[in-house]
Amino acid sequence: MSTAHYDVNGDIAVIRLDNPPVNGLGHALRQGIVAGIKQAEEDSNVNAVVIIGSDRAFSGGADITEFGTPKATAEPNLTTVINFLETASKPVVAAISGACMGGGLELALGCHYRIAKPDAQIALPEVKLGILPGAGGTQRLPRVIGAEHALNMIVSGAIMPAKQFKGSALFDDIVEGDLLESAQAFAKKVVSEKMPLKRVRDLKAKHPNPAGFFMFARNTVGAVAKNYPAPLKCVDAVEAAVTMPFDKGMEVERKAFVELLQTPESSALRHAFFAERLTSKIKDVPSDTPTRDIKSVGVIGGGTMGTGISINFLNAGIPVTLVEMKQEGLDRGVAAIQKVYEGRVKKGKMSEDKAKACVDLLTPSLSYDDLGDVDLVIEAVFEELGVKESVFQKLDEVCKPGAILASNTSTLDLDKIASFTKRPEDVIGLHFFSPANIMKLLEVVRGEKTAKDVLATAMKLAKTIRKTAVVSGVCDGFIGNRMVGPYQREALLMLEEGATVQQIDKAIEKFGFAMGPLRMADLAGGDIGWAIRKRQYKENPDMKKVVVADRLCEMGRYGQKTGSGFYRYEAGNRNALHDPEVDKVIDDVRKELGITPRKISNQEIVERCVYALVNEGARLLEEGIAQRASDIDMVYLTGYGFPVFRGGPMHYAEQVGLPNVVRAMEPFAANPNTQPGFWEPAPLLVKRAAEGTGFDGK
Predict the structure, then answer these.
(1) Omega within 30 of 0 (cis) for the link into 597
(2) If DSSP codes are grouped into helix, strand and coil, which group holds residue 322?
(3) Is residue 2 within 8 Å of residue 19, measured between CB atoms?
(4) ∠362-366-368 over CA atoms, to 5°?
(5) Which residues, including other chains, have CB under 8 Å from residue 193's CB and lie 6 or more apart?
(6) Range 180-202 burial, b when 16+ CB lie within 10 A, else e
(7) 125 preceded by a cis bond (ω within 30 of 0)
(8) 3-state class of 507 per DSSP?
């Protein structure tokens, strides 16, 4: 249970915060702090109080386990606790190490004095949840570091080391040695020298030209914030700190906090925050499941994916053996990896020594035999089942017992791939997204026979290489690509029905996607989607063909890599340019199919594309391919550019209201150009809409 431990060392009371892992300010901890202050005040032998956390965290802010529960706002709330500190009759010293963020920093600002370790992490990151600091952070921080610096911190949510604030009123001392000893010595000094009980609220937040500065800030922040209301509210609150008395400024902060809490953007950001933490929880795999040691990795394939995958492990300090079949391909792969590190050094993102250390962990090879001792092998070869078969049969021969055999397949049957080995329990899908060294998403595909410790190892490894891992069952395309198929198909069908390439992409980008579906297809490579479609046409002869896309691929227009796809591209330039040749192809296809083009609204474009995602997502939940709706959202937020401020497709559908989604789909089902049965709502969607709940039944 979280608590605050109270001890007395001589004449100094010590309140130690204890709510692992980051001392979240839960209700019990808040009660403990208040009780400790009262006890110290009542003890005539105590002359001062030190509040300290752990090495890992003074306090990381609110206790996320209490979000949405009565405990989150129960008295004493954080503002009340800070008032107890601020009005204490004896000096209160905050001793800060590790994370001091959000409510944790607000708590520290309520103390009379603050000392910190140089590497303590200081931040007010509330803006990342679509809100602002709600316990005086916007009012007190400008008073100790200046309005401009404070505004930058609050608007960005950036983490700063404590040493950067040396000499400011934020910290009275930056200490290297034992933190508790230093804090107690400082408290004794305060008492012996009869230093005043400094209150941050009594300081002035000044700026030489507040009217000009805050006008400039609004223009700058507004241009960047766009779909997010919180940053501009932060400007309002910091301006209040400069132009109003403290209590009036607190009223502005509180009003803005309450308003932001009700916005759909904050709801979406908070949903994403919790969704990311839920992905690691697997229903039938306990958190204490033993894992296998991964001390070395093999990667097969030195192309774009293979090199990107390799970089993830090199960055984490894990040796990689990169295997290619031909020297030319191997040299090209090694050169690509070296180029990435050279670029990072050039941009100042990595030291030369660090880059060299990473590259030195790479062992190029032309032989599978060099994979005999690695703990994990990931294949990133051509997406064809016969090729995968030969690779896995070879791995089965050369890899040591207990080695994990992983496939980077994006669509193929992992159970079939596992059957190519005598150890299907060691086979797992690790589907990276391109560019693999940059994209956060990792789909972890659990085969029918994948061992629980293999799955647990994959999830642990994902954290090591800083990926957001989402578990998927086996189906065509898993979670992400299975859903993106209908999404893109609807976009392609609307081309045939009357929309233009530019209109479709602009409508989806205005909705908030990083990139429209046709620009995305050009970036990914049209040949990849074409290969998948040809396989699907063969497997399902009744599947409606997307003729325009197929026709462009038949012409060799595969997107950026060929200089033309749905758009044309000039050498050395990734800008998507209108191509009249594509317009002609579209016109020709319409005539061939006997389609009279009609006017298609931007609303229809958005609804058909997004609700195609939602409906397929509901089917994935029904089938047990995805564990929970929030996992689907994380796939789309981290791998497909779905707008974060909308929270992912499933969350967005819940915000719209599932009955409204079902109703909006009805006219799409009557469209003669659609895939028969495609717009029939998934049974789970119909059920939850009738119940008036979200996808998880709540």
Answers:
(1) no
(2) strand
(3) yes
(4) 90
(5) none
(6) bebbbbbbbbbeeeeeebbbbbe
(7) no
(8) helix
**CATH classification code of 3-260:** 3.90.226.10
d(CA 20, CA 59) in angstroms, rounded, equals 10
Query: What whole-number distance in Å separates Cα of residue 366 and Cα of residue 370?
Result: 8
Nearest 5°: CA angle at 49, between 248 and 79?
Answer: 25
Compute the distance between CA of residue 606 and CA of residue 620 in angstroms, rounded to an integer.
Answer: 21
- Distance of alpha carbon 368 from alpha carbon 395, whole angstroms: 7
The pair of structure tokens assigned to 681 is 């709502």
What's the rounded Cα separation, in Å, for the pair 562 and 558?
6
Q: Specify the pairing of strand 160-161 against strand 12-18.
A: unpaired
Give the start-end residues of each E strand in 361-438: 362-365, 376-379, 404-407, 427-432
How many CB atoms are closer than 10 A to CB 12?
24
Q: Is 353 helix (H, G, I), strand (E, B) or coil?
A: helix
Contacts of 328 (CB under 8 A, 6+ apart): none
106 is catalytic: yes
CA of 96: how far to CAs of 37, 190, 208, 370, 471, in Å?
Answer: 18, 17, 31, 49, 38
Q: CA geometry: angle at 668 spanning 599 and 549, to 5°? A: 65
Residue of 126, 496, 607, 616 with catalytic role: 126
Give 38's Cβ-side CA count (13 Å radius).
Answer: 8
Distance CA 105, CA 362 (A): 42
Paired tokens of 62: 């609110």
Does the N-terminal peptide bond of residue 541 adopt cis geometry, omega within 30 degrees of 0? no
Q: Please pick, among 86, 106, 253, 497, the residue that the annotation labels catalytic.
A: 106
Contact 612, 486 (CB under 8 A): yes
If one counts every other C-beta atom within 10 angstroms of the C-beta of residue 602, the result is: 15
Instruction: Give dist(CA 150, CA 109) in Å, integer.
Output: 13
Q: What whole-number distance in Å separates Cα of residue 414 and Cα of residue 411?
A: 9
Contact, 447 vs 472, CB < 8 A? no
Q: So what's the pLDDT on residue 178?
A: 94
First-to-last alpha carbon distance for the chain, in angstroms, is 28
- Convert 582-592 to b/e letters by CB count within 10 Å (16 or more is b): beebbeebbee
Per-residue pLDDT tens over the stretch 513-531: 989 999 999 988 888 888 8
Count other C-beta atoms under 10 Å from residue 663's C-beta: 12
Radius of gyration of the chain (CA): 29
Sequence spans of domains, the chain: 3-260, 297-472, 480-691
Contact yes or no for 482/616 (Cβ under 8 A)? yes
pLDDT of amino acid 2? 61
Q: In this structure, are residues 529 and 488 in contact, taking their beta carbons and an 8 Å threshold?
A: yes
Q: Following CA atoms 556, 558, 563, 564 in sequence, which dihedral angle do they give, to the nearest 10 degrees?
A: 80
What are the distances in angstroms from CA 636 to CA 440, 491, 648, 649?
Answer: 11, 17, 6, 7
Active site residue 42: no
Q: Which residues of the chain have pLDDT under 70?
A: 1-2
Q: What CATH architecture applies to the domain 480-691?
A: Orthogonal Bundle (1.10)
CB-CB neighbours of 217 under 10 Å: 21
- Which strand (E) or helix (H) includes residue 653? helix 649-656
What is the distance between the alpha carbons of residues 78 and 84, in angstroms, rounded to a whole number? 10
Report the C-alpha gap between 563 and 555 in whole angstroms: 12
pTM of the model: 0.90
Decide: 424 and 449 in contact? Cβ < 8 Å. yes
Q: Which CATH superfamily is domain 297-472 in?
A: NAD(P)-binding Rossmann-like Domain (3.40.50.720)
- Cβ neighbourhood burial of 232 (10 Å; 0-12, 13-18, 19+): middle
Do 3-260 and 480-691 fold alike per CATH?
no
Alpha carbons within 13 angstroms on the beta-carbon side of residue 13 total 24
Whose tokens are 């609110």? That residue is: 62
**Token output for 189:** 């000094």
